[in-house]
């Protein structure tokens, strides 16, 4: 590990929480150089929905490389890109009656959010956007302005402007009443509040502590957005791609987003890809190459991303997500009941489940104990007080059970020692 400490920047983050050198990985297991095997409840922060080295994707990628398939093409047309686009349209968009256009940008989530913000500002001619407390949208300046976490915001070095912050539904002051108040202010020409370019939100705030918004609240935000000719942008970067038991986390909520931001899991294999789904009437406002990027639409990610979409041809995986999600929630609820006096709470949907242990230091000690006992898990939320469980959707039942047992032991151990 000395090489990393000697040569790699001080910015290193996750490696401090998981201080070992990983060498190989398969589905929900990562193995380090000493041969110690870890169960992965972190899955690359939501990238590896289909596991490490997914066999189907691995085979497709090896075949693609051996046949001299195009790895990099900027945004030129390739067979791999056409295959991905048509599979995505057939599997995700058409069955939902969506006619959104697909925009590829630099292959990170923050780049997708930047592109969405730019377009919303272009379409409306307005600068301000509404973002929500505890929201996380990325690290580049536009997205960072929408991200709520102060630690990240302080690193910007410049003012993070043009964002009006509102409380998320579950946050203090949040809820339907707050939205009514906001709408009254929009209607009052002397309130000092003017309609924004967009409302940008996560349906489930992942980094923010696994905070869930209700269908009613989301519909009301969308209604206000559209009543005031603002765009409704859903950031699906962490909760999309089947994580909640359906392709989109907003499926079944009767929402009609103007832009959907996707990244992380859409490349399937862990190879990077980001994509915005944009209503055609808004997409018309882009001019060719205006939001460019060298790595728009990465060839390998199109290949493995297309294979990932095969999982949505039927409901086998999504049924498994529902079952495994229930197993996870049940196990966390037992812990929450045991430590009810400390105010533990369980939140989540599908295979994003979380235990809020209220205290960031306790959560850190629990995550450390998990690591020592062979489980990778990452805290999130205010002060890191929430243990978020996001294993690969394809995790074996036995690994899931074993991981939950390690977690239980770690949580109880830390609480007994307190
Ligand atoms: C909801 C959400 N939006 C945006 C991002 C930023 O994605 P990236 O780190 O790929 O830039 C993340 C990353 O965790 C995220 O969870």
Short description:
It is built from 15 helices and 17 strands. It has 418 residues and is an alpha/beta fold.
Essential attributes:
Aspartate Aminotransferase, domain 2; alpha/beta; 7-stranded mixed beta sheet; 2 domains; 17 strands; Aspartate Aminotransferase, domain 1; binds pyridoxal-5'-phosphate; 15 helices; 418 residues; 4-stranded mixed beta sheet
CATH class of the largest domain: Alpha Beta
Q: How does the overall form come out from the CA principal axes?
A: globular
The number of distinct helices, counting runs of at least 4 residues, comes to 15
Number of strands: 17
CATH fold annotation of the largest domain: Aspartate Aminotransferase, domain 2
**What are the low-pLDDT stretches, counting only 5+ consecutive residues below 50?**
none
What this model shows, in words?
- The chain contains 15 helices and 17 strands.
- It is α/β, with parallel strands linked by helices and 418 residues long.
- It is 40% helix and 16% strand.
- The strands form four sheets. It has a seven-stranded mixed beta sheet. A four-stranded mixed beta sheet has the order 1-2-3-15.
- The protein starts with a helix and ends with a helix.
- Strand 16 and strand 17 form a beta hairpin.
- The chain has two domains: 157 residues, Aspartate Aminotransferase, domain 1 (Alpha-Beta Complex); 253 residues, Aspartate Aminotransferase, domain 2.
- The chain is globular and about 60 Å long.
- Bound molecules: pyridoxal-5'-phosphate (PLP).
- Pyridoxal-5'-phosphate binds next to helix 6.
